[in-house]
Amino acid sequence: MNSNPIGIFDSGLGGLTVWREVRRLMPGEDIVYFADSLHCPYGHKPVGKIIDLARGITDFLLGKFGCKLIVVACNTATAAAIDTLRSEFDVPFVGMEPAIKQAALHTKTGVVGVLATKGTFDGRLYKATSEKYAQGIEVLVQVGDGLVELVETNKINSSEADSLLKKYVRPMVENGADQIVLGCTHYPFYKTQIEAIAGDKVTVIDPAPAVAKRAHELLEAGGLFTGNGSGTDLFVSSAETGQMRSLLENTSALSLVDTVVEWNTNKYKALQ
Ligand code: DGL
Predict the structure, then answer these.
(1) Does the structure show a pLDDT above 50 at 59?
(2) 5: which DSSP letter?
(3) How many helices and strands, by DSSP H and E, does the chain display?
(4) Residues carrying an active site annotation
(5) I need a labelling partner for 149 at 20 to 30 A (CA). Which of 60, 120, 142, 228 fits?
(6) Quick one: pLDDT band at residue 258, thresholds 50, 70, 90?
(7) pLDDT tens for residues 153-176?
(8) Beta strands at 6-10 and 31-35: parallel, antiparallel or unpaired
């Protein structure tokens, strides 16, 4: 038994789509969510820089909160840094993996689309996953430039988002994709819009539930669950948290939240 919190981090607010699933699956666990909004987006940053940022956040989550498990709720940070984090820190990590396996298993057309950041596509993990699971399947890759920033600035339902999504999604569907994998944790915020653009013959896959399940398995295997009680949430950001708050409100997730905390260059301020 271990009553320390689970740590979840992302380059910004996208990892909230993962937090949502972890919270649903493990209502008794305390969670600390860290958004690195100061350095967002990570998508085009050099690998070494992302490793430094991920290392700093991990240090913070372990040092301040003693997190018992860390979910790297960012595909780009997973691609760049998870091997380093696992080798440097003695705590279990769960990373994001584009759900190519699930897409490859379910496609009827033999064509699947993956929407992710440049950093994710450049990583070894993406190449290994697609080589392993997408044998004989055509994979259409699309970098989703601009989509992360629109989530960060709370413009999910904007005409800018709509035109970017159409630009990215339509060619995949026109080229036969019947599965679209959301390979960036910011993108599930657009799931309804993507489904509307793609049409009802296309399945849009969000890997977050599988990641939450993996975190559950690791806690179970290590005997690390909190005994009982109801879990609390702490939301921490490296920059101004107004967007985080409105995003939580807009997605009706705030009802799941007990405490919101802001992290501003090491200064903590309780918002509620
Ligand atoms: N949520 C991050 C991911 O899953 C976004 C990366 C970025 O900041 O560009 O890749």
Answers:
(1) yes
(2) P
(3) 11, 11
(4) 74, 184
(5) 60
(6) low
(7) 889 999 999 999 999 999 999 999
(8) parallel
The whole-number pLDDT of residue 234 equals: 85
Per CATH, 6-96+209-271 and 100-206 having the same topology is answered yes
Q: What is the pLDDT of residue 126?
A: 92
What are residue 100's DSSP bridge partners? Answer: none
Q: How many angstroms separate the Cα of 94 from the Cα of each of 77, 177, 198?
A: 12, 28, 30
- Taken in order 3, 188, 103, 121, the sign of the CA dihedral is negative
Ligand 1 shell residues, CB under 6 Å: 10-12, 14, 40-43, 74-76, 96, 117, 120, 148, 184-186
Between 135 and 242, name the one with better pLDDT. Answer: 135
Rounded CA-CA distance 227/147 in Å is 39
CATH number of this structure's domain 100-206: 3.40.50.1860
Residue 78 CA, ligand 1 centroid: distance in Å: 10
Cβ–Cβ under 8 Å, residues 184 and 148? yes
Pocket test for ligand 1, best of 16, 40, 47, 74 (most atoms within 8 A of CB): 74
- Percent of the chain beyond pLDDT 70? 91
**pLDDT the model gives residue 246:** 78
pTM above 0.90, yes or no: yes
Which overall architecture, per CATH, does domain 6-96+209-271 show?
3-Layer(aba) Sandwich (3.40)
- Residue ranges per structural domain of the chain: 6-96+209-271, 100-206
